[in-house]
Amino acid sequence: MSTVLIEIRRARPADAPAVAETHDEAWRGAYQGIIPGAELDKLISRRGPDWWDSAIRKGSRIALMQFGDNIAGYANYGRNRARSLYYDAEIYELYLRPEFQGLGFGRRLFSSARKDMTQSGLKSMVVWALSDNEPAVEFYRALGGRAVARSSERFGTKVLDKVAFAWQG
User: What CATH code is assigned to 6-167?
Assistant: First the structure.
């Protein structure tokens, strides 16, 4: 019987290729059929290994969920970017490779990011999800997120609704 180590840790520059691959797989799994194909390809191609390497080296908070030798998912987070929402922190992205979804890993990654932000004095938090991404919407609701704002985002010729979920201290 073998034991697989599961850990959450900060991303290092050497992780950039694996994070780019995870981003690609997770986004295709999450947004295929929601974001038009050409637009989705463009969004993914912008986030190659060099982009992730730069983000990691600049000190972006990127936590990795590592399952054995594989990166199962990542969370990218920090201060809230939406001036109109009065929350301290924001999870910019939280994604798992499709084969790691539904196993409780997303919940663990979310909790780890939230704990890190709370320890940095960022007590309240917001996260945005496309309304058509039902698994994400249900995930954040199940974690106790309260819908606090709506907006929209254009992807090529398609405009998609998005919702902000928030948590207090």
Answer: 3.40.630.30
